[in-house]
Amino acid sequence: MSGSTKMKLFLSYLRFSFICVILLNCYASGQEMETMEQFFKSGHTNNWAVLVDTSRFWFNYRHVANVLSIYRSVKRLGIPDSQIILMIADDMACNPRNPRPATVFNNAHQHINVYGDDVEVDYRGYEVTVENFIRVLTGRLPPSTPRSKRLLTDDRSNVLVYMTGHGGDGFLKFQDAEEISNVELADAFQQMWQKRRYHEVFYMIDTCQAESMHQKFYSPNILAVASSRIGEDSLSHHNDNTLGVYIIDRYTYYALEFLEGVSPDSKKTMGQFLQACPRRQCISTVTVRTDLFQRDPDKVLITDFFGSVRKVELSNNYIQLDNIPLTIFPSQTCDGDACEKDKGNEKRIQRGPRMQYADPFPVDSYIKGVSVSDNSRH
User: Fold this and answer.
1) Which of 124, 151, 168, 378 has the fewest CB atoms in 10 Å of its CB?
2) CB–CB of 175/55 below 8 Å?
């Protein structure tokens, strides 16, 4: 092979390598842009959960197990207790009929005590009412209500609302004493939307004729799933002979089975979750409503509702923060190195705001003063 031929081959090789490098850079840039779009497309910055069991009495043990199972899952996936409103109508863990006090199990093999050691119940017993539930959603609570009982959401909050209990066509019973209708629930979500109290809502209900509870929804950005159609019962899964009652409902059992395979960095989607309990397993028809939801459930991560993964953007670039001086007014003071003279206009400038602790409120003196004034009156 002559020298000129070798040179031509060498130049062809260089040209081919150069083209390959350009194509790889274009592909990497495209992948980076796609990653950035995926990163920001969910649009929410925080997650909240409202978990409600509406049933009392020992024979409704399974409803308490249902709600505690979902509670355990969302906590494991990152939603803290401060952002979970847990409403339980009866205390099965301390019921005299419970042969294992301080425990609630969702499986006859008793693998998992869903009551655990750190359950924080926000509304219990007779506090679980239709009025309190609607007040929690809409934020119309008395000023004396503690923060732990408030749903402090905003227009960037994704909210999971889970309900379980006994229901019928168009209603869900609360403690066999009252009921919430599907119209009242739809209006509560509309109030939330008008008051900018959510970005997206995932509504999940396990009860008989559950489909009827989301039929009246008309507010945007709501994704809903129900354990049964109108005219169908939502059945329990299995019983525990030791307890003498059914301990979990079918739909929640298979939903929990799916969630147990989800990790905080999971890529599983809401579309997959909505198919977690086919009719052959649930023995009822799970219904889904997606017409109000703006995104494709198959492209929505399940952690957008069941987790609380903080979105962090990493950067290798340095950001230079200039020390901008602030003009000090005559009423302000500064000490030592915090001040210097500007030779141009002789104004005193301060490098930054001076920080100091405020004096504590003199509680002891105030109490003594009140006591003295009260004694002088007598």
Assistant:
1) 378
2) yes
Q: Residue 70: count other Cβ atoms within 10 Å of its Cβ.
A: 25
How many Å apart are CA 290 and CA 137, to the nearest integer? Answer: 21
pLDDT digits (tens, 9 = 90+) for 10-32: 666 666 666 666 666 655 555 44
In this structure, CATH architecture of domain 46-306:
3-Layer(aba) Sandwich (3.40)
Does residue 314 sit in helix, strand or coil? coil
Give the C-alpha distances (Å, rounded to integers) separating 331 from 327, 344, 348.
11, 22, 12
The answer to whether residue 208 is catalytic is yes
Catalytic residue among 63, 208, 237, 277: 208
Distance (Å, whole) CA 65 – CA 371: 51
Q: Considering only CA atoms, give the Rg of the chain.
A: 30
Per DSSP, the three-state class of 140 is coil
pLDDT digits (tens, 9 = 90+) for 202-227: 999 999 999 999 999 999 999 999 99
Report domain extents, the chain.
46-306
Question: Which of the residues 166, 199, 214, 237 is marked catalytic?
Answer: 166
**Does pLDDT of 302 surpass 50?**
yes
